[in-house]
């Protein structure tokens, strides 16, 4: 993006894009960690409470992802940092896959919850419609897909973080500065 007084493109994402990136990063890591933790707990009121927190986080991640995608589609990002073509291809493919998973993981989780007969009441206040009808066989089929997609997202996030660290400390090309919180 350029300002009226400048013809030089900015090298940073907008403040909203940066804020959404880091908020979603924290929420996704937190929701994934909670999902792994609660998965092995015995059926207790605590486990049910944690499942609700996990579902609330998933719906919030879904809503914020929609906002992030809308913002990204309507606001040009800063120019890419120069890198070999294969790295740029992998980076773009990873970002595209992550965006897809930002939607797929919570939607499959919502469908699983609906099929299992467990409604989602966002923050205990707003009942959300069932995504699919109650169907125990469908629930059993969806559950592993929610887990697999979440694991795939975790792997891609780890790769994303590793690539950013490589750019920061090995390439020293300023790539991380584009998404660093604070003023440019």
Features of the shown structure:
about 180 residues, mainly alpha, Fumarate Reductase Cytochrome B subunit, two-stranded antiparallel ribbon, 2 strands, about 65% helix, elongated, disordered N terminus
In round numbers, the mean pLDDT is 93
CATH-level-4 superfamily name? Transmembrane di-heme cytochromes, Chain C
Distance between the termini: 14 Å
Number of domains: 1
Could you give the order of the helices and strands? HHHEEH
Examine the secondary-structure arrangement and name the CATH architecture.
Answer: Up-down Bundle
Report the portion of residues in β strands: under 5%
Query: Rough shape?
Result: elongated
Radius of gyration: 19 Å
CATH fold-level topology: Fumarate Reductase Cytochrome B subunit
